[in-house]
Amino acid sequence: MDIRTSLAAQSYAQARTAAAPEPSAEGAEATVGRLIGSFAETLAEGEQTARAAMTGNADPHALVQALASSQLAVETVATVRDKVVEAYQEILRMPV
User: Fold this and answer.
1) By CB neighbour count within 10 A (0-12 exposed, 13-18 middle, 19+ buried), where does 49 fall?
2) How many domains are there within the chain?
3) So which residues are the signal peptide here (predicted)?
4) I need a labelling partner for 58 at 20 to 30 A (CA). Which of 52, 77, 83, 93 fits?
């Protein structure tokens, strides 16, 4: 079994950041921009790994890891989107 240490370290760093985000002084706009960039990067890495797997240049375990990471990113974005829409609807229901 081939375990790629860089992939393991990257996954650990992502999990650690998600579990205990560090406080920052940047604004909401910068935070959202950074998160969108991270989402796009995750999807791009998954696509690159999938292409490599189709040509036989990638480890099957790396493909499964990339697919799981992409699925988690998409589910997270969908959940955040649903919460934002729900909050917006609550604001619209407030009496003026």
Assistant:
1) buried
2) 1
3) none
4) 77
Amino acid, single-letter form, for residue 55: T
d(CA 74, CA 91): 26
pLDDT class for 1, splitting at 50, 70, 90?
Answer: very low
What contacts 24+ positions apart, CB below 8 Å, involve 72-78? 73/39, 73/42, 73/43, 74/43, 77/39
pLDDT digits (tens, 9 = 90+) for 13-64: 777 665 555 666 678 888 888 988 999 999 999 999 999 998 988 888 988 9
CB of 59 closer than 8 Å to CB of 1 = no
pTM for the predicted model, two decimal places: 0.62
Within a domain: residue 21?
Answer: no
| Residue 30 counted as domain residue | yes
